[in-house]
């Protein structure tokens, strides 16, 4: 009885551990932007809720921009309008 309980517990723990590893791997790569995901048109600053740089392991350097309505887009961080948005954001946060 003890051996079967120990085996069952070991199996359960192994399943939980591998499941959690898979979730973290998928979520880190889902933060990447791929070539066909980029948006080229300017997004109004008033529509942007937040933005986040993609992780270094991603194949394309990008910024994921989240709008107020919850939609997310990939933006090239070198885009002029995004550079201006970042400078504006930094200057307003520095003055408050």
Automatic annotation (TrEMBL):
GO cellular component, one term: extracellular space
Signal peptide limits: 1-22
TM ranges: none
Gene Ontology biological-process entries: antimicrobial humoral immune response mediated by antimicrobial peptide; chemokine-mediated signaling pathway; eosinophil chemotaxis; inflammatory response; positive regulation of cell migration
Pfam family, one: IL8
Top-level taxonomic group: Eukaryota
UniProt keyword annotations, A-Z: Cytokine, Signal
Residues of the Chemokine interleukin-8-like domain: 29-89
GO molecular function, one term: CCR chemokine receptor binding
InterPro entries named among the record's database cross-references: Chemokine_b/g/d, Chemokine_IL8-like_dom, Interleukin_8-like_sf
PANTHER family listed in its UniProt record: C-C MOTIF CHEMOKINE 1 (PTHR12015:SF5), SMALL INDUCIBLE CYTOKINE A (PTHR12015)
Protein's recorded name: CCL13 protein
Gene that encodes the chain: Ccl13_0
């Amino acid at each position: 009885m003890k051996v079967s309980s120990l085996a069952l517990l070991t199996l359960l723990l192994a399943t939980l551990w591998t499941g959690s590893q898979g979730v973290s791997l998928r979520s880190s790569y889902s933060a990447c932007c791929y070539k066909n995901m980029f948006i080229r048109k300017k997004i109004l600053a008033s529509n942007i809720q937040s933005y986040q740089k993609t992780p270094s392991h991603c194949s394309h350097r990008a910024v994921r921009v989240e709008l107020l309505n919850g939609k997310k887009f990939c933006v090239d961080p070198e885009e002029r309008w995004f550079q201006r948005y970042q400078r504006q954001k930094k200057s307003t946060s520095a003055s408050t």
